[in-house]
Recover the amino acids of this structure.
């Protein structure tokens, strides 16, 4: 397929495909996901969400942050950034183990859906918020500046890494928002997509999937340590525009060092 070179992430410099002529890659994403927002709560996708929620919750220890202990008064704050949040799968997944969540997405319709779903997370309203914005762009959107968008314990990105224009830049820009010792977590598709991807969806992607080495090398390049990656034993299956998508999925993590690693 013309859209997908067989290189991965950081080898993509110079390529530029967008959904509609004249739209930047990010605008193409906002445009596409605005239209997708309704379907994001379809039974087919909710099934993926339930599956991912249990896979991720099974790995709380592996993820390796100190989770909130809500039984203890004045338990320390555990702050999640749910980046490219969509309707908030990562927020709902980690809600029982964190004290606050911040969603950011380039699609206004997704942010609207996220805000409608806040009660489902079980977190109180004043502990959850979501805004339209882009942290990866240079400069970042004005909506995502200030202390509320800094010093996260966990940044989690669900099925969005393959939509970012430059994977290395995304890891760099987002890691800046982590506390020292904070964890960067991605779940996304492993390997190449085989078969047909609906045209407009394909145009929002830079790559259709990643190999372990692709993710590992970007994390290392951007200074994250304690890399780990697990491929789920069972594929994730869902419908997109009448097409059945059957994909291998991985969960990857890296940690921002407690102190910056001295550069030599
Ligand atoms: C497949 S959805 C996944 C949503 C959610 N994280 C989940 O797992 O259900 C991908 C999301 O990435 C968002 N997105 C794409 N590029 C982005 C960017 N540069 N910055 C922020 N969000 C972005 C899209 O608007 C869309 O909501």
């Amino acid at each position: 397929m013309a859209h997908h070179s067989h290189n991965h992430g950081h080898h993509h410099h110079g390529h530029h495909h967008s959904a509609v002529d004249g739209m930047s890659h990010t605008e193409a994403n906002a445009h596409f996901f605005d239209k997708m927002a309704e379907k994001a709560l379809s039974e087919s996708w909710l099934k993926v969400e339930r599956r991912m929620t249990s896979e991720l919750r099974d790995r709380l220890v592996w993820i390796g942050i100190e989770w909130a202990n809500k039984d203890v008064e004045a338990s320390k704050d555990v702050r999640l950034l749910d980046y490219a949040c969509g309707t908030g799968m990562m927020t709902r997944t980690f809600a029982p183990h964190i004290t606050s969540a911040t969603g950011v997405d380039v699609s206004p319709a997704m942010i609207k859906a996220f805000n409608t779903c806040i009660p489902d997370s079980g977190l109180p309203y004043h502990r959850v918020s979501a805004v339209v914005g882009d942290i990866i762009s240079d400069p970042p959107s004005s909506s995502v500046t200030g202390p509320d968008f800094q010093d996260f314990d966990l940044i989690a990105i669900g099925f969005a890494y393959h939509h970012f224009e430059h994977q290395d830049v995304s890891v760099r820009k987002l890691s800046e928002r982590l506390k020292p010792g904070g964890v960067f977590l991605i779940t996304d598709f492993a390997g190449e997509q085989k078969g047909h991807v609906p045209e407009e969806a394909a145009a929002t992607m830079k790559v259709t999937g990643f190999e372990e080495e692709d993710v590992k090398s970007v994390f290392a390049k951007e200074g994250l340590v304690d890399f780990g990656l697990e491929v789920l034993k069972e594929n994730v299956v869902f419908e997109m525009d009448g097409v059945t998508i059957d994909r291998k999925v991985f969960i990857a993590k890296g940690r921002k060092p407690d102190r910056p690693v001295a550069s030599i």
In short: The radius of gyration is 17 Å. Helices lie at 25-36, 43-57, 60-63, 89-94, 108-121, 167-175, 199-202, 212-221.
